[in-house]
Specification:
Blueprint (H helix, E strand, L loop, with lengths): L2 E8 L6 E7 L8 E10 L1 H8 L1 H4 L11 E2 L2 E11 L9 E7 L3 E4 L1 E2 L5 E4 L13 E4 L5 H4 L2 H6 L1 H16 L7 E5 L4 H12 L6 E6 L4 H7 L4 E4 L12 E5 L4 H11 L3 E6 L20 E2 L2 H12 L3 H17 L4 E5 L2 H12 L7 E5 L4
Parallel strand pairs: 11-12, 11-14, 12-13, 14-15, 15-16, 17-18
Antiparallel strand pairs: 1-2, 1-4, 3-5, 3-7, 3-18, 5-6, 6-10, 8-9, 9-10
Helix pairs in contact: 5-6, 5-10
The structure holds NADP nicotinamide-adenine-dinucleotide phosphate.
Length: about 350
Amino acid sequence: MPQLTELWVDRTDIRTTKIVNSTIPDLTDGEVLVTIDKFGLTANNVSYAVSGDFIGYWKYYPADDNWGKVPVWGCANVVESKCADIPVGDRLWGFFPMANSTVLRPGKVTDKNFIDDTDHRKELPALYNAYSRTKAEPEVLQTMENERCLLFPLFATSYVLYDYLLDNNFFGADQILIGSASSKTGFGLAHLLQQDKNVSAKVVGITSKGNTDFVKRLNCCDDIVVYGDEDSIDRNVPAAYIDMSGDVRLTKALHMLLEDNLVESAMVGASHWEDGGKAGVLPGAKPKFFFAPGQIAKRDQEWGPGVMWQKAMMASAGIAQAVKDEMTVDWTTNVDDLATLWIQLLDNQIPASRGLMVSLVH
Ligand SMILES: NC(=O)c1ccc[n+]([C@@H]2O[C@H](COP(=O)([O-])OP(=O)(O)OC[C@H]3O[C@@H](n4cnc5c(N)ncnc54)[C@H](OP(=O)(O)O)[C@@H]3O)[C@@H](O)[C@H]2O)c1
């Protein structure tokens, strides 16, 4: 008898996990059962957990008491269906729990995708409720499933950030400072800026000593600065800071160094999830949260619905192709090892060059 296996995380202490085995629930009318045969794991998933209460990521797949299910980007097969519009055998890409299976309730079904219409998800951002039906997609995307799980959700954000900078004439900056430059979101942005012959701004990647060689090998930054050496950045050149680290020390150091020459300060991520905090009043542009759906909505108005997302997917495929020789893909295939991996991710023990894929389906 197949079992449902999930990894739950304590919402009050994300280092505590528990493996939960249970029977697969019977479907009710309108539902489908899917087996999640692959998903990616990155610092982004840690951020989902850290901001789970604040932004609502725990609400996608609720668990009991103080427990939560961290969402991940993965691929799944429909193995049982009580939904007339979604047949057994359909292949999906979207937001899943860290598990071997789950139940979805497809709504607004088109050839290309559907929205999960489960009651508790109705109020949540649509981006994460949409499931692509990948058999209807271009073949090139179908051959890039691992990249889609591991890289595309991050590179899509890199593309939105790149577009945001272009759209705002770089806020007048002549250098773009990227915090946590070895992160996929970070080096994806660096890559897009450097590939664009019309971009004259210098790309400065800021990273840890241990990840410097990786960023060098990617060859997407004009300069690489190690944490603590920020004084080597030219304070006389107007700069935009795009921060994937969330490290308050770094934010303060850059604002104090560049003062009014820091013309944009965008808080995108918190890969240094234990080093956050209030920065207080700082010289230069006021740090503000970067809201990717805001820029996407703007472009949907200007370019037509879905055009930006399409461009982001194509850009993601390009970056994935460009970096493939510098990254390994390591598979974890049982839930005990996944629990260990989760802790390693929290403790920054995963080198930037190591891509983590998981499959709990055997
Ligand atoms: N706002 C949005 O829409 C949005 C969208 C996508 C991603 N993001 C955010 O961007 C950040 C990066 O995500 P990603 O998935 O691209 O990351 P990733 O590829 O997994 O990043 C790995 C890098 O993050 C740093 N890092 C990871 N864990 C760490 C830890 N425990 N302590 C200190 N540093 C650690 C290290 O870089 P360094 O040594 O270079 O610091 C590491 O090489 C996340 O916070 C994510 O949530 C935000």
